[in-house]
Structure prediction request, 677 residues.
Amino acid sequence: MATDAPPPSKGGAGNDPAPHAPSTEEFVQVQESAEFGELRRSHRSFAFPLTIAFIAWYLVYVLLSNYAGDFMGTKLFGNINVALVLGLGQFLTTFLIAWFYSRHAAAKLDPKAEAIKSRMENRMETRTEGDA
Amino acid sequence: MSPAHTAAIELAAASDASEHRTLIISLFAAFVVATLFITVWAGRQTKNAADFYAGGRQFTGFQNGLAISGDYMSAASFLGIAGAIALFGYDGFLYSIGFLVAWLVALLLVAEPLRNSGRYTMGDVLAYRMRQRPVRTAAGTSTIVVSIFYLLAQMAGAGVLVSLLLGITSDAGKILIVALVGVLMIVYVTIGGMKGTTWVQMVKAVLLIAGTILITFLILLKFNFNVSDLLGTAASNSGKGSAFLEPGLKYGVTATSKLDFLSLGIALVLGTAGLPHILIRFYTVPTAKAARKSVNWAIGIIGAFYLMTIVLGFGAAALLKPDDITASNKAGNTAAPLAALEIGGGGDSTGGAILLAVISAVAFATILAVVAGLTLASSSSFAHDIYANVIRKGKATEKEEMKAARWSTVFIGVVSIALGALARDLNVAGLVALAFAVAASANLPTILYSLFWKRFTTQGALWSIYGGLIAAVGLVLFSPVVSGKPSSMFPDANFDFFPLENPGLISIPLGFLLGWLGSILTKEKPDEGKYAELEVKSLTGVGAH
Prediction:
């Protein structure tokens, strides 16, 4: 065990000396901070339900294709049927979700992540602000 | 006989006619020369490990998005999906949906955290909070298994396809093609590293998209941009009527085949975010934001491409007789080139010959770019995870590690030439689906638990990687893919105890379950400090390389 894991003082599995590599204690401190909790919540409360939703929607589509052939074969206009429209709907929702997530990330995640990162990498400021 | 020659004969005629073959070979050669030039140029700039493994991390989001598309859109998706649509109509189209929706898993859960917390390989993230040597060994094993299965399918496919397009029928000729593809990919990767591979993939993506737009446009033009008309002609020409536009022709036959389809669907949607050759592409950009941007570009490009393959596939069904499609390749892999030949004016026309040559060259470029990406993923993982961190216990110098990466590229290349040559007549379609299933069963659970579950332990990681891997490979071994059916690898043997061709339905939940069980059934305490590091880094990018 002791030979397997790198010493806890330096960040990560790497051997590169990083300019202001925070210590494990600092990482634990930040992980427990309200600010980081907020960032984690913004990511998880958005990404987790959305992932479950699009996988469910995809599975509904697969199951309909499997077990609801008549419904899927219903013609809507010309030779375009429900199956084709729902299939194209999967394309559309994929594009929309990608856009929706990116907008959320840019507005809600990036500024918080940026703030924590710059504070941790300029350690002196962390100390004074963190202890206040 | 029909007024025109049958398309299969036209293809043979076109391939036999030496001027057409000369044109195809010239285009192949032009691509090879251009990419070798790029490779040498990239090789000169490859000085350290970050250059070799991650292309210097200086690609833009757009460039990487293009390269991801080039890495992902394999010959299987270009020729395979178009062919499946041409033969089975709607059921062929279902593949592309799974392949595309899968990118959302990568976008929402994997790309950015991975970019922030890893350096070169998938193993970097999986082993971060765990005991290094066992988890690195497991991650390296799974990376190499997934990549080799995928690689083998591409190599064998290349042999069949290129020989067909060039009209080569002898076994020696096919083996020669496989060897040529293998040697080129070794050269790309050993000399150009990630930088060279990335540029080759970008060039290929542009060619593939341009070629597909051209053929799609010509097909739509023929039908006056009336998609309903195109679909109607395809349906009546297929001889299956409106059933051709509805689900069920391929997978709806029996209750087992329906379950198989569900299994495939799950493996496709969860597999992408666990494919090592895709994951390492996220390290080629400087930040997590750029990684996000590259996935967005990839979703746009890949989505547009799959939309066009629908036109390509139904176009082939509308323009060609079903028998002609299956005459040259039973799986329909030549439907797109045949449609190109037909839309250009048929086998005797210059237009047809030029379009056939263009599409053939694009297919060739596609194969080369994908095999290069796969070889790089497996040799990086061997050199970085297994050689540097397990065998040398992290004490290898950068020079030694890069040397190991180059030698393992040569080794993996030679092995895949040999296997590809042996497998050239086997049914290899199952191999790509298997690669996705292993990625979804062994890699994805471990990645997600590592990033998001505080109590995940080394034992959990080992159980989910090896458990998912063994379950997926084992179930395929005892499936109709390997034995028991005329289309099996060994049609005369009968050890097909597992009825489904795709193991995902069982092996993916099992991978998740084992990761959880392994973690709760151990006295081992999760390393909380390490998890704090990983979690904070993965969400903020602190100390990212």
Notes: Chain B touches chain A through 74 residues (CB under 8 Å). The domain at 7-224+265-427 of chain B is CATH 1.20.1730.10 (Sodium/glucose cotransporter). The first helix of chain B runs from residue 7 to 16. The two ends of chain B are 65 Å apart (CA to CA).
